[in-house]
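B., you asked whether I could sanity-check this one before it goes into the benchmark set. Here's the sequence:
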Amino acid sequence: MIVCCLVRVEVPAALWRKHRIGELGIDDAATLIAEFESDYFGAPESRPRFLVLGLPSHMLDEAARLVAAHGLRAYDGLQMAAGKVARDTEPSCQGFACFDEDLRRAAAAEGFSLVPSNRRDRA
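And here's what the prediction gave me:
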């Protein structure tokens, strides 16, 4: 799975937010973050599961275009720009995984297939 380096901050922030609003217990949040970090960095017994893209200037330029074109938040524009860079590099990278409705609409408009493919799959 190809991800933008911003997920290093976004995933823990989302999980801690769920804890703060009472949707996730502290132990569950800590476990999920540890699992995410194992996927991100790898573990003694396994390699990282993510290919992490940095933020080169051409990706920032594309993100700026995307936020204007689709009304996205800054981090969402950067995530989509990372997806577009991945797709430009490897045309078989056609899927875009997210749950945010605005980002899903923008990804579909940019020609990505959505993962999960429909609302029922996300329940």
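One thing to flag: The chain has a mean pLDDT of 93. Otherwise nothing jumped out at me.
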